[in-house]
Amino acid sequence: MNSSESKPESVTSQKKNIVVLISGSGSNLQAFIEAQKNSGFNGSIKAVISNKEDVYGLERAKQANIPAICIPHKEYSTRERFDLALANAINQYSPDLIILAGFMRILTPDFVKNYKGKLLNIHPSLLPKYPGLHTHRKAIENGDKLHGTTVHFVTEELDGGPLVGQGSTVIQANDSEESLNKRIQTLEHKLYPYIAKLFLSGAISLNEDVVYFENKQLEQVISI
After folding, report:
1. Which of 9-18, 124-133, 202-211 is the least confident region?
2. Nearest-5° Cα angle at 158, 180 to 81
3. Fewest CB atoms within 10 Å of the CB: 3, 41, 162, 172?
4. Is the pLDDT of residue 11 over 60?
5. Torsions phi, psi of 116, nearest 5?
6. In what side-by-side order are the strands of the sheet with 43-50?
7. How sure is the predictor about 49, in pLDDT bands with cuts at 50, 70 and 90?
8. How confident is the model at residue 12 (pLDDT cuts 50, 70, 90)?
9. Edge-to-edge strand ranges of the sheet holding 204-207
């Protein structure tokens, strides 16, 4: 960190490329837009890509002077063709890290294999609990005491890749899906850029589906 502060020009030239994939309003995208302003965050968002038109996340990107690209998935007859178009767009920016930030698409195995080890996702539950949708509702209905969010590497298994970091909150007796979602989003906006920062610094890596932290196998998820 001290060396980074003493050589700002060198660090700037070494900033790693990030591509962010979205499908909606982009609240996690905004957290990354803010994070990249921090001198300790060794990455720069080179493009934001959405599979849906007219989502606010694209407007967030434009306001931050980041290329905002829409590739409507409905224009492609198969997942494979869409993923090929998506990969072609991503590859223009030579990404070191690809962030799934509310990207509501199931990616094909070939796409995932192509970017394995530099593809991160955040999911609104304490994985392996509650993969898929409606996680807040499930946590409340099942009487869980804790709920949270998880950052994981993406593999071919939906919401099933190796876990990296988690944040949790206590479920209150009067919680609704909406109130719980609000607190979970607050956690996401802290956790996701933090884990990405560690990845960009080289502290976190994936090898043979095993997560390493500072060159040692990660024994338990990083918590905030």
Report:
1. 9-18
2. 120
3. 3
4. no
5. -60, 135
6. 68-70, 43-50, 16-22, 97-100, 119-123, 146-153, 163-170, 222-223
7. very high
8. very low
9. 204-207, 210-213, 216-217
Q: What's the rounded Cα separation, in Å, for the pair 141 and 130?
A: 12
Q: Which of 73, 123, 136, 152 is catalytic?
A: 123
- Tell me: pLDDT of 94 over 90: yes
42 burial level (CB within 10 Å; 0-12, 13-18, 19+): buried
Q: Which residues of 127-165 are buried (b: 16+ CB within 10 A; e: fewer)?
A: bebbeeeebbebbbeeebeebbbbbbbbbeeebebebbb
Lookup: tokens for 47: 């493009």
Query: What is residue 161's DSSP assignment?
Result: S
Lookup result for tokens 């803010």:
34
Active site includes 123? Answer: yes
Q: Read off the tokens for 132.
A: 């898929």
- Is pTM, for the whole model, over 0.90? yes
